Amino acid sequence: MICMSKIKCAVFDLDGTLVNTIDDLAGACETLLKKYNFGKSWSIEDYTRFVGNGAKKLVKRAFDDTLDEETLNARYEEFKPLYDSMKLNNAYAYDGICEQLNILKQKGIKLCVVTNKPNVAARGMVEHIFGKDLFDYIIGCVDGVPVKPDPTTTLQAIKSVGCKPSETIFFGDSEVDMRTAKNADIEAVGCSWGYRSFETLFAEHPSIIIDEPSYISKLF
């Protein structure tokens, strides 16, 4: 069980946890597929399965695992500015998220975003939707740095706000997030309103699963 009296830091995944971004992620991928006459397109439901392991893996899956490494790297480099240009076309914070974050802020909880979204896009999106002062630390995918479920960026975020893993709780919507929390030795909260099912989250044995944002502040 989580000892909430010790919690000083809340780490949040971005896509599927704080913000619904799937339409724009899908749109950027579909634009690339059409550009290269791939001859296949995917549904939004497909893209909810493709996301979670970073943009490069998303591009790989969108091209149905048909690209060699050199071509994949090239398509990934195209994807980053393409997605950055359209990342706010349809993205929106889930209902109640802003209110919940402000409640935690008022309680003195340090707020971090740790995501596998490209770092520039992640920072731009968070600052546009939530403002520049709400989160204490934001980090996305940086080339050369391991992505979640590797704990590197999560531990970096926690350390940067002056907290320890034992003082931290991780909110995420996917098995990747649950494994990240485990690898960082921090407590995990599964958020079932995102891109993965309750069953997928349950299989990862998080400390708790919540099904709507209004439960976030009730944990504190």
Describe this structure in words.
Helix content is 42%, strand content 16%. It contains nine helices and eight strands. It has helices at residues 22-35, 44-50, 55-62, 69-86, 97-106, 119-130, 152-160, 175-184, 198-202, and strands at residues 9-12, 19-20, 92-93, 110-118, 137-141, 168-172, 187-191, 208-210. Helix 8 (175-184) links the parallel strand 6 (168-172) and strand 7. Helix 1 (22-35) crosses helix 4 (69-86) and helix 3 (55-62) crosses helix 4 (69-86).
Write the layout of secondary structure elements.
Layout (H helix, E strand, L loop, with lengths): L8 E4 L6 E2 L1 H14 L8 H7 L4 H8 L6 H18 L5 E2 L3 H10 L3 E9 H12 L6 E5 L10 H9 L7 E5 L2 H10 L2 E5 L6 H5 L5 E3 L10
Parallel strand pairs: 1-4, 1-6, 4-5, 6-7, 7-8
Antiparallel strand pairs: 2-3
Helix pairs in contact: 1-4, 3-4
Compose a concise summary of this entry.
The protein is built from 9 helices and 8 strands. With 220 residues, the protein is of the alpha/beta class.
